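Lecture 7 notes: from sequence to structure.

We start with a single chain of 332 residues. Read the sequence below before looking at the structure.
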Amino acid sequence: MRDKQGRSSDIHASLADCMGQTPLVRLSRMFPNEHHQVFGKLEFMNPGGSMKDRPARFIIEQAFRQGILHADSHIIESTSGNLGIALAMMGCIYGLKVTCVVDPNISRTNLKIIQLMGASVEMVEEKDAAGGYLLTRIERVRSLLQEIPYSYWINQYANEWNWMAHYHGAGDEIAKAVSKLDVLVAGVSTSGSIMGTSRRLREKFPNLLVVGVDAVGSVIFEGGPKGKRSLPGIGASRVPELLNREEIDRVIHVNDYESARACRELVQKEGIFAGGSSGSVVAAIQKLLPELDEPSHIVTLLPDRGDRYMDLVYDDTWLNAVKERVDKYVNN
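Now the structure, written as tokens:
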């Protein structure tokens, strides 16, 4: 079939048009119990390699429609890596300048991809009062907004278009794909994906149990366990403005070692080569299943690819160091 310009309908105008419609896969080898069926939404199959493609495109296109962005605009954002890649990619497509404010926890692969796509990088190395880098990254963003003409801060922790992107994206796709759903398990960082996805799914499944997965050492949920965290993409050193705790029924905390171990198990059993936060949600489901009395249909979001974590969760030296750190903290 061809459009009015004579092009095949299978040909896309840009990489932005290839985002979304990611596969939903039954994780039957990872979770073989027939009473509990677990499905993974493979968000790492977006063209930029992560679920962050969705808000990057949605926010930029909405901003253009409302006249906030124009040809001379300069995008600025604090990012642990994936949104930076997605914004750099959108910058290439729309001809926008992009600056990403990052910290030492970013994987070397993510950093290199951002730079290869032409975005500028500002590295923040001073930790904030909570022991992370988020607050100092945001401080640097605010200073750049004063220095750079026509700059626009994406502000993923507070931008309502963030959760809307997932509402109209993964949330809508899952709602249309399944006829029964009992539990959503999703990682929490900006909280955009869990908020948007759960809001759409609860329209179809009002009794849905929403389980947030947070990193040990994160401050998002009050009273969470203390500890050091070094995996990007999950947890935060401040509470995101987008988060509505009342919409999350249960929170499970996972440490870096549990996340990395689950990543390796996922690739060995399912052949799914996913990133650190995918390991976090898989580890959380492993903790959750023994507590579920009734047979359940569970869906989770697998946010990004594993090749960006070769120097982290898939590196034996890193894994052993994390295990020693976790064991020492638990024993003390």
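The two ends are 66 Å apart (CA to CA). Keep this in mind for problem set 3.
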